[in-house]
Design a protein that fits this description.
The chain is mainly β. It contains 1 helix and 15 strands, in the order αβββββββββββββββ. The radius of gyration is 28 Å and the shape is elongated.
């Protein structure tokens, strides 16, 4: 009899304890959720230093960038969230030049690079973001947000050598050579970001978000030296760099609904 009585007392104690655990777990899930973010934007043009900007038409222009991250959101206080995660991206770049073909014997054609077609290889990177996010909930359960933070970035080893040649006076003439490093010489670097936007609450409590994002880098993680030459003209040498700063649009899907901010 005592054995059954003890079991009954134990069960009566476990039921409210189990209820409290389930309630605490639900509250915890409200304060912690994940999200997927996809960004497309325009990265800043390459900075060019050196000779030949006039004779060789050296120039650069903004190019497309794509980025994706898987984020973890943790509520710090009412309306304030800590955001971290893991992601990566790919950025195009260009280094434009124009060499007059009639300077060669016989005259050459198509001695130019223009636009994205002039990139030797896209710039690929991995990133670990850390941001502070502020949220404001509307009466309909939708949300405004503002973010500020930084990311630690890495890039895989990648050195690129580009050489351009043409036949001149019966021999092979090298008119262009570019030596490029695409991973900041093996060192990680930081980007700094600002973002803001709006999120719509979906049927299951998830959020669909659209943000405008500005990412600033003060490191040329893609850097190169160049040498350009045409007959009877001074040889042009110099360097250029690609920082990966960009202005873009981010579409995000937040998989768990946070508790409303009043």
């Amino acid at each position: 009899m005592k054995k059954y009585l003890l079991r009954g007392v134990t069960a009566s104690m476990m039921i409210p304890l189990l209820f409290l655990c389930v309630q605490a777990s639900a509250q915890y899930r409200q304060k912690l959720h994940t999200g997927i973010n996809l960004t497309t934007g325009l990265s800043s043009k390459a900075s060019i230093e050196g000779d030949g900007k006039t004779d060789y038409g050296l120039a650069s222009a903004p190019q497309l960038l794509f980025e994706g991250t898987l984020n973890l959101y943790r509520e710090l206080d009412e309306g304030y969230w800590l955001v971290t995660g893991l992601g990566g991206g790919v950025a195009a770049y260009n280094f434009d030049y124009y060499l007059p073909g009639d300077a060669f014997n016989p005259p050459a054609i198509y001695l130019f690079n223009n636009g994205a077609a002039s990139r030797a290889r896209d710039l690929i990177y991995l990133k670990v973001p850390l941001e502070l996010e502020r949220r404001w909930t509307t009466s309909r359960g939708n949300m405004w947000n503002a973010n500020i933070g930084a990311s630690l970035l890495f890039a895989p080893p990648m050195d690129v050598t580009s050489i351009g040649t043409v036949v001149h006076d019966g021999r092979i003439y090298e008119y262009m050579r570019v030596e490029q490093n695409n991973n900041n010489h093996g060192r990680p670097w930081f980007n700094y970001q600002l973002a803001g936007g709006y999120a719509w609450k979906l049927r299951w409590g998830h959020l669909l978000r659209v943000n405008l994002k500005l990412s600033l880098s003060f490191t040329d993680y893609g850097s190169a030296t160049y040498r350009l030459s045409i007959p009877d003209k001074p040889v042009a040498t110099g360097k250029y760099g690609v920082s990966g700063s960009y202005l873009g649009l981010t579409v995000g899907y937040l998989l768990k609904r946070a508790a409303p901010v009043e």
